Structures are given as structure tokens and as C-alpha cells.
Amino acid sequence: MTIADQVTGSTIAGTAKPAEPRAAAITLPAIGERELRLDLFRGLALWLIFIDHLPTSLLTWFTIRNYGFSDATEIFIFISGYTAAFVYCRAMLEGGVVIATARILRRVWQIYVAHVFLFTIFLAEISYVATRFENPLYTEEMGIMDFLKQPDVTIVQALLLRFRPVNMDVLPLYIVLMLALPVILWSMRWKPDVTLGLSVVLYAVTWEYDLYFSAYPNGFWAFNPLAWQLLFVFGAWCALGGARRMSRILASPVTMWISIAYIVAAFYVTLTWYLPQLSHLMPKRLEQWMYPIDKTDLDVLRFTHFLALAALTVRFLPRDWPGLKSQWLRPLILCGQHSLEIFCLGVFLAFAGHFILAEVSGGAAMHALISLSGILIMWGVAWVISWYKRVADKSGAKTKNAVGNADLAGGG
Amino acid sequence: MKAKVLLSLILLCGGLAAPQARADDAAPATPAVPPACELPSYLLTSESQLPKVAEAVKSGKPLEILVIGSRSTTIPASEDASYPARMQAILKDKLPPSEAVHVSVEIQSKKTAEEAATTFVKLMEAKRPTLVIWQTGTVDAIRAIDPDDFRGAVTEGVAALQNAGADVVLMNLQYSPRTETMISVPPYLDNMRVVAQEHDIPLFDRFAIMRQWNDQGQFDLFSPSRGPELAKQVHDCLGRALAQFVFDAAHLGPAQQQN
């Protein structure tokens, strides 16, 4: 709560005080200045999402969802909003609204195709399990296979993004957010703070009136875009000058201590989930107010937890920290730079990992091996993509000017 | 870090316990719980209580238990090995011989919590149980019912059962690693926990219990085996755990047994 106040407070302060007197509503950092921290944390989010999609193992305990309310999804969506706004706003300034919109739509198409590709793999997996697995303990759970009986409906619904199997929720969310991006950017160029304000209003209205995207066969989207847009728009707002205007608040020790206190409290609450012996120390009143912490609609507790983490990260990890250039962080940064490809690869590897665990052996050693090789494969593929892009850019540069930075345009 | 250390410890203990388990198999059955069924005590305890069960046992009235469940309450073609039947046998052992225990089962196949709850008033009039164990959530998870609606339905169902004068235990979903990539279970687990907390009723955490067994290697729940052996063993352990859970939540300690 407190952190959210901090941030909304800052926006109000931003509008009230003429920090930048000339009409330059949005400002972009100078060209070529690549924000490695974004790549680093997006890479980290991708690794964590991969590990979280595998069955629970020792490695799962390293993922941040076990230590607080928010998880890798928040990082991923925020950074995606940040980079997408950064790249396409530049395109909008240079080429105009139409060109920028066209480029965004092209990106949406790529993400859509990636989603359909993943769905095909899922279909293959589920069909295999349906025909091979007949443990009488789980006759009821096998009811999930019923949809295979009517592929005519299911596949069409999947193409409409309404039928989305587990673990395939992030890309549809991302598609919707990217579709809204032209409007968001257009509005951001006009008045960034108002745009962010509208986003908060939409978030509040979504909670108040329980708005959602319906899904097939029933239910709703696991990540409600109407709520998660807040994080995306907030990322965009930060990219377009908001972060700079907030720097005073971010640097203040008050912010730091509030963030630390909140993160510690969240950690304690999370601990009671895993060590139920502690749960009697939790006041019942607090529990009733707090639970359930809703991921679908991006619970305020999750959002503020992310803000607290982000505030501390920005404070203790400066943009020019030499470690960002070190070889050790290179794999993470490389993965973060090709996030769409690596994200899809991660989902695929998680499917494959499940499959191996189920078919070959489920031991802890196998589990560790799968997690580790998954991460190595992600790194290797990211490296190959980087290498290919470098080579292609070199030969392409002779004939045409590079239109924007393709890596950055990844936007997620 | 703490959690990690704890987990390593648990794994270590599991590793130590497993070989022992095999050695003990041959020994006469003095310990009530077979090693394969062993569980940490926190999975078998609840702060909430079962006053009506306690009352019935104290006054020597028969203990009528109704299990309302879905298909995972039974094993196809082996009813006697399913967990309600096992629980009845164990409770009879644990309670004094004079105490009559009867467990009946009501299967609501392919029904969501909401659909099942509509039948409760009539069901309760017909059966008049002291304790209802309501196992639900699986069908809702498979059909991806809105978790808020699910919570509302469970709340209403629990209220109906309580109004009819019974103690209630909620039982959540099975741990099913094979379908983990296909069914999203966490929202339904969370909401059942919330309802249990709000109504101050015990929640039998079948999911955590089965996951514990799988992680410790007591059972391989990934197994594709078509035979009923694994299902029978798991249900036997579930029945034992459930009996123990009810026994503790109603505070039917050794003192009661002597009466």
C-alpha cells in the first residue's frame, strides 16, 4: 500500500511541478545507450519462468515467488512494457504513428504465431499422455482429455486465444497488451501522467466491477489483461521519462526502508505457507483481509511487492555497474535480449522436461539435470541468435540502414 | 535460504527413512502406521475442531460419517480399497469396540462444487451424518471454473452442511504430476484453504500429502501402471491419514479410548 502511495504521489507531484517546463512531455535516452539492467532482469525472469513451469524441485526454491508475493511474470511484463515503449516510441517520433503501428502489429503477429506453435506442441503432448497413461488413481483427472473429443471447437478456440492450456497464458496477455500499445504510446506522447492515471482507473474499475476476458470452455483468462495492463503501462511510463522524474523518490532513504520493511513482511507471510507451524503467529484478521492474493487480477499486494523490489534494485544496482559487462552475467543478458524466442523455448523445454521426468525417471538428479540443461540450451540458442544477427547485420548494413535496433525491438 | 535448508533436511530424512521402511516391512505390525504412509505431523493436524464428533463419541452415540466426493474418492472396481472404506476400518480399530462407526459415500461424478452443493439439503435429510467429509475441486479445476465462483459455491455448500447439524471437513484435490501441465490447480487449493479458514473447519490437505509421498519416493505418482495396486496403496494411506486427522481434530485422544 505504502509503496503504491509513493508512486501515485510521485505522478501527482510530477504533474504539479513543472519539472520540464518546455512541452517535452516525453523524453528518450540517447540512442545506442543500451540498458543492460533490463536485459539482465528479463533474462532472469525467463529462467525463473522456465524453472517455475517444471515440477517442484530443489531449484524451485531459488525462484522469487517463494520469497514474496510477486514472481517472474511481473518482472517480465514490466520490462516488456518498458522496452516496447522505448523502441516503438522512437519509431513513432521518427516515422510517424502509422509506421510505428505497422511495426507493432508485425510484432503482434510474430507473438501470435509463436503462441500457435506452442499450442501445437501442447496438443502433441496431451494426446500422447491421453493414450499412454491409464493409472486408475487418476481416472478423474484424465477428464481434462475430454476436449480432444471435439478438436473442431477446441482448435478454433485456441486460434481465437480463448482456449489456453496451463502455462500458456503469458503470450496471449502479451498479445493483447501489444495490440493496445499504439493507443498507449499515442496517449503517452500527449500526456504521460494522464495515461498512467487512466491505466490506474482501468485497473480500479476492473477490480470494482469484476471485468474479465472470458475463456473457453468456461472461466476467464488466467492473466486478466485489464488488470495487468497497469504494470505494462507503468513500464512504458518509466521508459518515457517517468523513471527519471521519480529518481528523487527512488533515492530517498524513506523509500528504501519502506521497501525493505514490506519485502521482509511479505517474506514472512510467504514463509507461513511453507512452514505451517508458523501460521498461528499470523493474526486471523490480517489473513482474512489479505487472502486470497489474486494473481489473475494482479493483486495490489503483488504489484506493490514488485515496486518495492524494483525500487531496491534501481538503488543498489546502478546503470553503470561494471558487473553488468562481466562474463558471468553474459548468459542472462543474452537470454534477455532475445526474450520472445527464449520465452517460447523455455515453455517448450518445460513441456519436454515434464515428459522426460514422466517417461524416463523422476529422480532428483534427473530433475537437476533437466533444469540445468534447459538453462544451458536457452543460453546456447540466445548466443546463436545473437551471432546470426551480428552476421546478418554486417552484410545487411551495406545495402540498407538498420531500421531501429532489432534486439531492442524484441520488446518481449 | 531457510526454506531450502529445511527442504534439504526433509529430503535427507526421507532418504534415511526409506531403507528403514523396507526393513520394517517384515516386522509384526506393532506400529499403527505403515512406513509408506508416514507423514510429517503438520499435515495431519488442524487448529479447527470437530465438536460434534467429539460429543458423539463421548456420549457413546454411533458415529455416522458421510463422504461426499467425485470419482477420485473411489477406485474403479475396488470399492473396499478406497479411502472411505479404509478410514472406516482404521477408525473402528482406534475407537473403543462399543463405538459404532459407519461411513457412507456419495459420489457426485463430474459435478462442480456448485452443482454438488445443490443436492446437500436433501442428502443431509436422508443421511443425518455427524461428520461430512467433502472432497471437491477437481472437476472445477478441469473445467477452469472462475475461482471466485468456486469459493462462493464451497462457502454455500459448507454452510448448508453445517446448518444441517454436521461437522465438516474439506478435502482438496489429488496431487497429479502427470496432468500438472494441463490442469491449473493452485487457485482451487488456495480458495478451499480460505473457506476452511473463514468457517474454522479442518482442511485435509490431500494435495500436499500426496505430493509429500511422491517427493519422498514413498509412491511414484508418475507411474503409468494400469493395475489397481498403486491406487489401492495410496488410498489405504489416505484412509489412515484421514482417520488420524479426524481423530485428532475431534480430540479423541487415548483418554477417550479408555472410556
From TrEMBL, chain A:
Record field: transmembrane: 44-64, 76-99, 111-130, 170-187, 194-214, 226-243, 255-275, 300-318, 339-358, 364-388
Q: Which InterPro entries match?
A: UCP028704_OpgC
UniProtKB keywords: Membrane, Transmembrane, Transmembrane helix
Q: Carries keyword Transmembrane helix?
A: yes
Q: Which Pfam families match?
A: OpgC_C (PF10129)
Asked if the keyword Transmembrane belongs to this entry, the reply reads yes
Name-wise, this protein is: OpgC protein
| Species annotation | Bradyrhizobium huanghuaihaiense
UniProtKB/TrEMBL annotation, chain B:
**Pfam families, alphabetically?**
NonGDSL (PF25182)
Q: Which Gene3D superfamilies match?
A: SGNH hydrolase
Query: Does the keyword section mention Lipoprotein?
Result: no
Q: Which UniProt keywords apply?
A: Signal
Range of residues in the leader sequence: 1-23
> Can you name one GO molecular function term for this protein?
hydrolase activity, acting on ester bonds
**Protein known as:** GDSL-like lipase/acylhydrolase family protein
* Organism annotation: Bradyrhizobium huanghuaihaiense
